[in-house]
Amino acid sequence: MRQTGSRRTADPGPARPAARPAVRRILGLLTAAAVGLSGCALYRPSPLAVGPNLRDSVQRLTVDPARLRLAPLKAIQIDGRDGLTPLEIAVLAVLNNPDLEAKRRAAKVGGAQIFVAGLFPDPQITASVDKPIAGPDTQTARAFGASFDLAGLLAHTYILHAARFTAKATDLNLLWSEWSVAQQARQLAEIAMAAEARAAVLRQVLALAADRSGRSSRALDNHDVTLQVAAADLTVKLDVQTQLLTAEHDAQKARRDLNALLGLRADVILPLMATPPVTVYDAAAISRALANLPERRPDLLALKSAYGAQDANVRKAVLAQFPLSSVGLATTRDTAGVITQGLSAAFALPIFNGGRGAVKVENATREQLRAEYQARLDQTDADVRNAERERAGAVQAVTLLASDVPRLEALVRPAIVAYDRGDIDSQTYLTLSQTALSRRADLNDKELAARLAEISLETALFLPPAESRATP
C-alpha cells in the first residue's frame, strides 16, 4: 500500500566531516615550503679558463700597496723608473703571484665554514593526513610533530670554535705563503743579477782566452809553438766557455722562475737593479727575535690555531657521548576522533661504542698536532742557527776577498802596457788577467752567498729586510 502524509527518507547515518580544512592545511604547508625554497641559492655556472693568463709586460703588474698584509714589507715603496730592486720584486711577487691568488680564494672558504658552523640545527617538522575510505571510523586522521637535534645543539659551540680556529689557521698559512714567495722572489732576483755579473766577467776572460788560443793556433801552423802549448791554450778557452754557458743558463733560469712567481711570460725581461748590501744584525738582536718567534711567525701561529681547532674537536667528541640525541613533540588525531599529544626522545645506549672510539681518535690527532708544533719550533731554531753561521762565514770571505781583489786588479792595468810593449808574453798577461777576473767572480759569488744567507735568516726570523730597516 502507498503511505500518505509526510515523506520519510532513509537515514544516511552520521555525516562524514568535510575534507576542506585538511586540504587547506596541506596547501598551506606547500605554500610555506615554496616560500622557503625561494630564499635558497641558485646554481650559476663558472667555466674554467681555456688558456694561460700570464702578463706580457712589466707595466701590467698589479701595484696596490693596500692589498699588502705583510708587516715586514709595508715600508717598501715601489719605484721602477730606474729598475726594480730585489725588495721591490718581493712586493710585486706577493701582489701578483698566481698561486697566492688561488690560495686567497681558498681562504674565503674558511669564512663560509664559520657561517655554516654558526647555524643552529634546523628543527624537523612532520605532518600527515589520512582520510578513511572504509571501516567503522569516519573521521579524517591528522598528525603533526616537531623534533629537534639536541646533540647538534650541544655540539654547536665547539663546532663554531673549531671552524673559527681553522679559518684563522688558513689565513695565517696564507700569510706565511706570501712571506715565503716574497723571500723566494728576492733570492731569485739576487741569483739572476749575480749570475749575469759573473757572465760579464767570464766574457772578458773568454775574449782573452780566445785571443790567446787563436795566436797559439796560428803559431802552431807556423811551427813557432809546440802542440802542448796550443792544446793548453785551447783547453783554457773551452773551460772558460763552459763556465760562461753555465752562468748564462743560471741567469736565464733564475729569471724564468722569477717571471713565473710574478705571473709574467717567460720572455719578459725584468729591469733588475742591485742594491748595496746592508747588514744590521747582531747576536743579541737574533736572540731577541728568536725568543718571541712563536708569537710572531705566521706558520707557528697557524699550527697553534690548528691545535685549538683540534682541541675543540676533542671537546665535541667527549660531549657526543651524552646519550640523549633528539627530542620531539607530536599531536595526533586518529580516525575515531581521539586526540593525543606526546613527547618523544632518542637515546643511545653506551654499551658497545659509546663514542669512545671517536674520543680516542680526536685525542690522538691533537697529540699529533702537538708533536708537529714542537718539530716546527725545533726546525725553526736550527734554520736560524744555520743561516746565521752561513751568513757569518760568507761575510768573512767577502771581507778577505774585498781587500785583495782590488790590489790584484791594480796589477793588471800596467800589465796591459807591458804586453803592448812586448815586455811580457801573452801567456803571462792572460794568466794574470784570468786570475784577477776569476777572483772578482769569486768575490761576487761570496757576496751572493752572504745576501742569500741574510734573506734566509730574515725569512726564518720573520723580520723586515735589512735594506728597508736601514732606509731613513
Assess the beta-strand content as a share of residues.
Answer: 5-15%
* Helix percentage range: 55-70%
CATH topology: Outer membrane efflux proteins (OEP)
**Inertia-based shape:** elongated
Uncertain residue segments: 1-19
Structurally, the number of domains stands at 1
User: Helix count?
Assistant: 10
Oligomer: single chain
Mean pLDDT over the residues: 82
Helices and strands, with pairings:
Elements lengths: L19 H19 L47 H11 L1 H21 L5 E7 L10 E9 H72 L5 H36 L20 H9 L6 H22 L4 E10 L5 E9 L8 H66 L4 H36 L4 H5 L2
Antiparallel strand pairs: 1-2, 2-3, 3-4
Helix pairs in contact: 2-4, 3-4, 4-5, 4-7, 4-9, 7-8, 8-9
How does this model look, in words?
- This protein is an alpha+beta fold and 472 residues long.
- It has one domain: Outer membrane efflux proteins (OEP), CATH 1.20.1600.10.
- Helix content is 63%, strand content 7%.
- It is built from 10 helices and 4 strands; from the N terminus they run αααββααααββααα.
- It has helices at 20-38, 86-96, 98-118, 150-221, 227-262, 283-291, 298-319, 356-421, 426-461, 466-470, and strands at 124-130, 141-149, 324-333, 339-347.
- Strands 1-2-3-4 form a 4-stranded antiparallel β-sheet.
- β3 (324-333) and β4 form a beta hairpin.
- The longest helix has 72 residues, at 150-221.
- 24% of the residues are buried.
- The model is unreliable at 1-19 (pLDDT under 50).
